[in-house]
Amino acid sequence: MSVIVIQFITLDGIVTDPDGSGGTPAGGWAFRHGPEAVAGDKFRLGSTLDNGVMLMGRTTWQLFSRIWPGRDDPFARRLNAVPKLVASRTLTDSSAWANSRLMDGDLLDTVKNETRDVIIAGSLSVVHALMAEELVDEYRLLTFPTVLGTGQRLFPDGGPHTDLECRSAQQIGAVVLARYRTTRR
After folding, report:
1. Which end of the chain is more exposed for a tag (fewer CB within 10 A), N or C?
2. Which of 125, 135, 133, 61 is nearest to 98 (CA)?
3. Strand, helix or coil for residue 142
4. Which of 83, 96, 32 is nearest to 55 (CA)?
């Protein structure tokens, strides 16, 4: 089992509001590079979606549950079919998106006890909680040639020390997909 974080990220490490749905002043930065920069399986998840589970916080799940169920391309079919765990203290219904269920119990215990690969999309508070406990095994970062100067960072000031090994990097149009594995000390 691996915990895989996937993120749209700017050159200065910002992950806040890549699609503009959060209404931030600099929001929508990922989509300024055209639809080809974000369409399809850019994170090269492939069969990991077939055999794994997605973990999302409430905000990301609510956004995705409005977008993905109505799509019918190969990537959307995989995304709609994957089991989805929703980490939320306030959400009471996850029926808006097939194969979703609210997570029972503690986030960290749930991840530690999962036997499938866990894919976390967005969901920065979930990612930060897992980072603090050194539970993240891999980062797949789609880096956009944008510097925002402000916003929430994937790797926050004062966050845990983490050593990473670059496993691959590939330019895809205007963006770069890089895969990093955590090296345990």
Report:
1. C
2. 61
3. strand
4. 83
How far apart (Å, rounded) are the C-alpha atoms in residues 90 and 71? 27
**Kind of pairing, strands 118-121 and 84-87?**
unpaired
pLDDT digits (tens, 9 = 90+) for 94-106: 999 999 999 988 9
The two structure tokens encoding residue 175: 């963006």
What six digits make up the tokens of 170?
A: 């590939």
The 10s digit of each residue's pLDDT in 48-107 is 988 999 999 999 999 999 999 999 988 899 999 999 999 999 999 999 999 999 998 899
SS (H, E, C) 46-101: CHHHHHCEEEEEHHHHHHHHHHHHHCCCHHHHHHHHCCEEEECCCCCCCCCCCCEE
Query: 165: exposed, middle or buried (C-beta count within 10 Å: 0-12, 13-18, 19+)?
Result: exposed
Contact 135, 21 (CB under 8 A): no
The candidate with the shortest Cα–Cα distance to 116, out of 84, 154, 92, is 84
Q: What is the pairing mode between strands 175-183 and 138-144?
A: antiparallel
7 closest CA partner among 96, 165, 119: 119
